[in-house]
Write a structure and sequence with these properties.
- By secondary structure, the protein is α+β, with helices and mostly antiparallel strands.
- The protein is built from 14 helices and 26 strands.
- A hairpin with a 7-residue loop joins strand 3 and strand 4 (39-41).
- The protein folds into two domains: 6-199, Beta-galactosidase, Chain A, domain 5 (Distorted Sandwich), CATH 2.70.98.10; 226-614, Glycosyltransferase.
- The chain has a 15-stranded antiparallel beta sheet that branches. A three-stranded antiparallel beta sheet has the order 24-25-26. It has a two-stranded antiparallel ribbon with strand order 16-17.
- Helix 6 crosses helix 7 and helix 13 runs antiparallel to helix 14.
- 30% of the residues lie in helices and 19% in strands.
């Protein structure tokens, strides 16, 4: 039980890869050059799998925060003898006229120390372990730093002039030094593949310049692209930056989380690799990007998903549910046996077997995304039109089949209500988009199937015993995904059956902290899991749509309060201890926060209660940045809904 709490970590990103930094200054997770690459530092999952630490030698009181409107992390150590400030970032060189990071960028991890008061003795340790700890690199001292060679990675560490270096073990270096008031010291880490010449270590002035440029770029993006002015403004804007940080800039893919195998249950087996992108996230992600970021990011994410998925829908109507960030299809899962896992939670997995599952909800996710982007140029180009027509046709043919469902259950297929709902949504949005899809001739057939699905949901998805729409047809098990029924426009939120479903979930799928479980029935996996933050935000959104603004606000704030001190959310919360669980930070949780905040703000404005409880929605329409073609007010409500 020696591993730090998940909440102790902060996120760094260059929009290609990510690092996690602990409260006490150790980088315990770093994958280069991509989010899904083998880790170079993986102490997060095993004490012997590599770290890079910079911290005071003596005990310190620690404060930390992100610099305003950035993901540049500042950690302040208050020691008995002085104050030490550590600033950490991954170099971000965002082009001034584009949302893309320049494709010729090489990764650089930047660390700057300063001493504003007194003096501090600083200890440091550099212990890279490429390929999840398999490689023990050899070190070469060069002017201005060190080069670590081994495996596919060449790592170049820049160190301050005159720093003493001692060899701890054969593949680690460490040392200590003093900083006095007014002094600074900068470190940098670069990576290149073995077939390229190693770059020279960064000079201190280069580290300083890259760090300042990164601060400017984050702030420039935030100022230009974040327009939301509703309640919880800071949380929404921060979540928008987190989504930017989880975006693979070369393709626009958004990963679910930058980590693998942080467990849903301490010591359990529910440990998955989330460094990929899921179609199921599409429509929710696009709505969140409209509110908290910019529609150009939305369009790029949709373009990536459409292109990645396009080859599969023709194979008997099968649409793959998830992809690698470069569009890869084969995400075969394997266990890394030599890693002990976070708090002995084994196995550590790389890849995700769910890529081979059948999940019929993906049809609706894609069509809802296209509907949301219906005024954006390029969405309905000829190749996309043909693809989206095939997606609607596939939903029409396959909606009655069983599948693994939204939660990727690894047991026998079932007739999941959510999958039927999203097939309904695929047809509903396809009908609404018939003109853009050049599919008006298909509307009568699509309408008939849509009505058939609706009847099946109403007749077989409703349980008198549960007093709610349930997880699967002819089942009495509750499932939080039923909260999506009003959110996608199937039934209004004030329908008695929807109100009863919301009440049932709020009272019977709730833990002692007031957070919502996904479900409580069997799922074909050993062990249990924590309460689910996304589902709690869905409940807040549903309460808002039902006009229960007090309950919506209370539910929202309860979920948002589980963010760590840096405003980062995990996937789940341990119901007994309140500790964060699951891969971290979790895009879906931040997406849920943004969309719930927007829903509450919209309902407050519509009801004339904008000033109630100190909430001031202001401009809540999530107006897109810029004034180019397609810029319009966000209108996520379905046009073809019931």
């Amino acid at each position: 039980m020696s591993h730090l709490p998940i909440a102790d970590y902060g996120l760094l990103s260059d929009r290609r890869s990510a690092a996690l930094v602990s409260r006490d200054g150790s980088i315990d997770w770093l994958c280069l050059p991509r989010f899904d690459a083998p880790a170079i530092f993986a102490r997060l999952l095993d004490r012997e799998a590599g770290t890079w630490a910079l911290r005071p030698v003596e005990e310190a009181r620690i404060e930390r925060r992100y610099l305003d409107r950035t993901l540049v992390l500042r950690t302040t150590f208050h020691t008995r003898t002085g104050v030490l400030v550590l600033e950490d970032a991954m170099a971000l060189e965002m082009a001034k006229d584009s949302h893309r990071v320049r494709l010729d960028d090489s990764p650089a991890l930047l660390r700057r120390l300063s001493c504003p008061e007194g003096e501090v003795e600083i200890g440091w340790e550099f212990e890279p372990r490429p390929e999840f700890g398999l490689v023990l690199p050899l070190f070469e001292e060069v002017p201005g730093g060190l080069i670590a060679r081994g495996g596919p990675d060449v790592l170049v560490l820049s160190i301050p002039p005159g720093l003493d270096i001692s060899r701890g073990r054969s593949s680690s270096v460490k040392g200590s030094f003093h900083l006095r008031q007014g002094e600074r010291a900068s470190f940098g880490l670069q990576r290149c593949p073995i077939w390229l010449p190693a770059p020279d270590p960064l000079r201190e002035e280069e580290v300083e310049a890259l760090l300042e440029e990164t601060i400017r770029d984050w702030r420039r993006w935030s100022v230009q692209h974040q327009a939301y002015e509703g309640p919880w403004r800071e949380e929404v804007h921060h979540s928008g930056r987190v989504l930017q940080a989880l975006t693979f800039a070369p393709t626009g893919a958004i990963i679910a989380a930058p980590t693998t195998s942080l467990p849903e249950e301490i010591g359990g087996e529910r440990n998955w690799d989330y460094r990929y992108t899921w179609i199921r996230d599409a429509s929710l992600t696009l709505q969140a990007l409209w509110v908290a970021a910019c529609p150009e990011e939305s369009a790029r994410f949709f373009e990536f998903l459409a292109h990645a998925a396009m080859t599969r829908v023709r194979e008997g109507g099968r649409l793959q549910i998830m992809f690698g960030i470069g569009g890869e299809h084969d995400l075969s899962e394997r266990a890394i046996r030599h890693l002990s896992g976070w708090r002995e939670s084994r196995p550590v997995r790389v890849g995700n077997e769910a890529w081979e599952q059948t999940q019929l909800d993906v049809y609706g996710e894609l069509l809802c995304a296209a509907h949301l982007l219906r005024d954006q140029p390029g969405v309905f180009e000829p190749v996309n039109r043909a693809f989206l027509r095939e997606v609607v046709d596939a939903a029409s043919r396959r909606w009655s089949e069983p599948d693994q469902g939204i939660w990727e259950m690894r047991g026998p297929p079932r007739h999941h209500l959510y999958s039927k709902l999203m097939c309904w949504a695929a047809l509903d949005r396809g009908i609404a988009l018939a003109k853009q899809l050049e599919a008006r001739d298909k509307v009568p057939a699509w309408s008939a199937v849509r009505d058939e699905i609706a009847s099946a949901i109403l007749e077989q998805g409703w349980s008198r015993k549960a007093g709610a729409f349930t997880q699967s047809f002819e089942s009495d098990h509750l499932d939080a995904s039923a909260l999506r029924l009003p959110l996608v426009g199937f039934l209004p939120a004030d329908d008695p059956r929807i109100r009863s479903t919301i009440e049932a979930i709020a009272t019977r799928l709730v833990d002692d902290r007031g957070l919502i479980y996904r479900y409580l029935g069997p799922d074909g996996l050993p062990g249990e899991e924590g309460s689910f933050l996304l589902c709690t935000f869905w409940l807040a959104e549903a309460w808002a749509m039902a006009g229960e603004l007090d309950r919506a606000t209370e539910t929202f704030e309860r979920a948002a309060s589980h963010a760590n001190d840096l405003g980062l959310l995990s996937e789940e919360v341990d119901p007994a201890t309140g500790e964060l669980l699951g891969n971290f930070p979790q895009a879906f949780s931040h997406i849920g926060l943004v969309n719930a905040a927007w829903a509450i703000a919209s309902q407050l404005a519509a009801s004339g209660q904008a000033g109630r409880s100190g909430l001031h929605p202001g401009r809540i329409e999530g107006e897109p940045c810029g004034s180019g073609p397609g810029a319009r007010r966000l209108d996520p409500a379905p046009r073809g809904g019931r």
